[in-house]
Amino acid sequence: MNILKANREALTELYQSLRKEYEEYKAQNLSLDLSRGKPDSLQLDLTQPMLDTPLTRDDVVNGGIDYRNYGVFEGVPAMKKLFSELFSIDENNIFIGGNSSLQLMYDTMMRCMMFGTADSPRPWVQVDKRKWLCVAPGYDRHFLITEKLGFELITIPMRADGPDMDLVEEYVKDPSVLGIWCVPKYSNPTGNTYSDTVVRRLASMKCAAPDFRIFWDNAYGIHDIAEEGDHLMNIFDACKEYGTENRVFFYTSTSKITFPGAGVAMMAMSDDNLNHARSYLSASTIGYDKLNQLRHIRFLKNPEHVRAHMRRLGDMIKEKFDLTLSILDQTLLDSGVATYTRPNGGYFISLDVMPGTAKRVYDLMKEAGVTLTKVGATYPYGIDPEDKNLRLAPTYCTLADLSLSCKILTVAVRMSAIEKLIF
Amino acid sequence: MNILKANREALTELYQSLRKEYEEYKAQNLSLDLSRGKPDSLQLDLTQPMLDTPLTRDDVVNGGIDYRNYGVFEGVPAMKKLFSELFSIDENNIFIGGNSSLQLMYDTMMRCMMFGTADSPRPWVQVDKRKWLCVAPGYDRHFLITEKLGFELITIPMRADGPDMDLVEEYVKDPSVLGIWCVPKYSNPTGNTYSDTVVRRLASMKCAAPDFRIFWDNAYGIHDIAEEGDHLMNIFDACKEYGTENRVFFYTSTSKITFPGAGVAMMAMSDDNLNHARSYLSASTIGYDKLNQLRHIRFLKNPEHVRAHMRRLGDMIKEKFDLTLSILDQTLLDSGVATYTRPNGGYFISLDVMPGTAKRVYDLMKEAGVTLTKVGATYPYGIDPEDKNLRLAPTYCTLADLSLSCKILTVAVRMSAIEKLIF
Description:
Two copies of one chain form a homodimer. The first copy, chain A, folds into two domains: about 10-45 and about 305-420, Aspartate Aminotransferase, domain 1, CATH 3.90.1150.10; about 65-300, Type I PLP-dependent aspartate aminotransferase-like (Major domain) (Aspartate Aminotransferase, domain 2, 3-Layer(aba) Sandwich). In chain A, about 45% of the residues lie in helices and about 15% in strands. The first copy, chain A, has helices at about 10-25, 40-45, 50, 55-60, 75-85, 100-115, 140-150, 165-170, 195-205, 235-240, 270-285, 290-300, 305-330, 360-365, 400-420, and strands spanning about 30-35, 60, 65, 95, 130-135, 150-160, 160-165, 175-180, 215, 250-255, 265-270, 340, 350-355, 370, 390. Chain A has an eight-stranded mixed sheet, with helices on both faces. Chain A has a three-stranded antiparallel sheet with strand order 12-13-15, with no helix packed on it. In chain A, strand 8, helix 9 and strand 9 (about 215) form a beta-alpha-beta unit. In chain A, helix 1 (about 10-25) runs antiparallel to helix 15, helix 9 (about 195-205) crosses helix 10 and helix 14 (about 360-365) packs across helix 15. The radius of gyration of chain A is 23 Å and the shape is globular. The model of chain A has no long low-confidence stretch (mean pLDDT about 95). At the A-B interface, helix 2, helix 3, helix 4, helix 6 and helix 7 of A face helix 2, helix 3, helix 4, helix 6 and helix 7 of B.
């Protein structure tokens, strides 16, 4: 039933029936959660063999190197090689971090603030009224870092093929616009992937700030769910064409390949950028955990093996995405009051409800015992200007809980829309 | 033979004999290294059982928590408990980090620069002509962090009982003096420990800056070599007496308990300080590796077990310290041109040669194929004003190499002194 086209009587009737259904759910005193963008334990069990096999002395002392000791500062060469092959980036441009790519991003950002970049006329902290482009809906932790560091956050709407590039190209004419957050593949939470055209425009656009930087958080770079995953152009290739290699800081990790709490993160950047970073990195840490890198190399082996592993993980996630979408489709597809994404990978489905009702949906869900990601979390300053976006994270809960949560969600979305329309 | 009291003839004769001995060493084309402050592989083998035993699924999923996943942001409670018991610090004031306490220190410092502390009227980056106290000889990476961040480094001479507190108390009257680096126990490189009086004076002194901070790097807090180790007063206890708990940022790690490259680091601070840090920590990382914490808890067990482990490590280090000191004693003890420390713990012996000759000793050693820590590295800006201090790191090389290196060193020290006196 298309709620937008229905008459008042039909809506009143539907509302009463939904209200009844809702009260029945509520009476069950549920405690469910659709907010957690993390794998369930069954997914993690696929990587358990990494822990089940001990690291022997021969594993950790070889080739004249004792990996238990200090040294090998930029990462175990085989770990670099694996990332290099997976993402087609030269090993010499890769630095292996700890268990968190977010930490590498934050650390880079702090370095830029205090010391600037390889191309900076001054540290970023000295740029008055500094601004940052935030593609929204997007990742709250990204936005939070730049908010805390005193950037004015500028919202760039996310389109099907990536950020609204007309707007981006307009904003970068301002020399106080210093960069942009990007999750280019299976973006959080929209699940879409930047087109080649968007990647090229990001690489080629004229930026007034000589030290403009793209924080390219390729967190879901190999995280396909569909058999035929999305294609993302290698941004370094594009930058090479336009002579803008210094523009990109690239990040990824194995958080959603192996373990979210104990994976291996990496960053990649041009020679200039890495040389600039090096002089500060060596003052800031004794280097990252090489033994965990050895564990990863042994378990992940090579790109083919990684892709096979990701296919198994993808199948487990697909089951949950399919279930979610099939339930949404039953009552929301033709409702006129909801649109949602059907990603080929990643961790999230983005649901747009009738403008002005997202918070009401959130509250109804809360009251019925289902936690959603806070409304606004996907926007700069935590404010969704249209009060319409909800981020769904189907991966963590069980299939039964997911099914129940989604059913309640479809009720809440329609109730909220009708309330808005006729009350 | 006391070189200072010998006549010219005797010195000339001694020099010729030393020169001959030196040339013989040189002819061997040696490649030795006394510069590396890290354990040897035999020491690390004591911790190998931690890696030999796999982490089973029951180890990593228990008590309703899947430690392989996100969450448990501030560290596994049992890891906090162990540090709490070892250092008599409340668990609630402990935050568990990654594999590098240096990283936690750098991160704290960057946070202070950009956001200030719980007591700051403004971020440190806004303090013009900011200054930092550096106890010297000290740890080069400490000095480097504050140098890079634009602090003027002020040298505080290290005395037998810790920093020259008269000088410290004088300097902290300046509101632009924002803090001090301290390695309070078995200090790098002098190996001495701060007396209770020094700890109390640090806790009680009147600081003009309301946000003055002591970076208390207790890296060698339980690293005794002698049977009766040094005693270090708990600085938090002292601060509580004087109401200055916010003054201290405490750091330590298992780098030299388990593995330098894959240990567990921690920081401890007052409630105010930790609450202040929390709001930034959650934006800066997804949390640290909990699986490595679980490995450590299982291997280290409890304080008694840790102390027994440290005794075994201490015995291995003692053998090398004893060898070093016995060789130095043979010709340098009564030479009048060298003094050196006899630490009860830690990793270093500090050797003061005749002022104005340390660089010459370094060069002679280099020429004979023995690498020493660069002269000046233990001082702010890398400059030893008297050109006299050498940091000896006996732990990494084999006993045979150590013996040979030390013998050449005694030759080089005496040669350099005589050259200075009579040429």
